[in-house]
Amino acid sequence: MTSRNTYHHGDLRQAVLAAALDVIAAEGPGALSLRDLARRAGVSHAAPAHHFGDRTGLLTAVAAQGYGLLADALDGVDGLRERGVRYVRFAMEHPAHFQVMFQPELLRADDPDLVAAKDRASTELHTGVTGLPDVPDPRTAGIAAWSLAHGFATLLLSSNLDDPLTGRDPEEAFRALATLTFGTGAPGGPGAPEEVDGPENPPAH
């Protein structure tokens, strides 16, 4: 265990967050205990409360970090289909963040860092897309595209796609699914939905 004396102020906060992510990935957010996290991170018992206040504050910080990472993953990607691929990739690479981000009952909704990170992720989801041809309701089409990526990622993380995807790359499978669902105007090709409802009001799992 790393000595608490080796941590600087910022490193200590990150150490607690890293320990929290390990617990969430293994046991879910319900298993979090600030005292246990302090022990895991090798810091004083008071350190988690000092940085996060309480368990809700800690989970809110995890979600804010996750939205920031999602925004980074989507930055500069052309086309809604490829944004969907990046969304799925983010979920696979950051499953603990993904578990927490979309459970608003666990979070402090008005936290400034969380609000800013969600806004940034939403902006990235909306950037660079054009309207699907012959779609009377682009907003609904956008919700459909987001639901496709989010649902696929959720099924993937819960191992419900293990048999259907045996031997297939999940990202390529998602591209095929997006094309099958949206036809020639599949997200990522010419004519993806103009507006995609992003994580302003995400569904809880």
Lay out the secondary structure.
Layout: H1 9-27, H2 34-41, H3 47-52, H4 55-74, H5 80-93, H6 95-101, H7 112-126, H8 138-157, H9 170-182
Brief synopsis:
With 205 residues, this protein is an all-alpha fold. The protein contains nine helices and no strands.
Can you give a write-up of this model?
By secondary structure, the protein is mainly alpha-helical. 60% of the residues lie in helices and 0% in strands. The protein has helices at residues 9-27, 34-41, 47-52, 55-74, 80-93, 95-101, 112-126, 138-157, 170-182.
Helix fraction?
55-70%
Strand proportion, as a percent range, falls in under 5%
Distance between the termini: 34 Å
Mean pLDDT: 82
Query: Could you say which structural class the secondary elements and strand pairing correspond to?
Result: mainly alpha
Number of strands: 0
**Runs with pLDDT <50, length 5+?**
1-6, 184-197
Q: Which word captures the global form?
A: globular
Count every helix, treating DSSP H or I runs of 4 or more residues as helices: 9
Descriptors for this entry?
0% strand
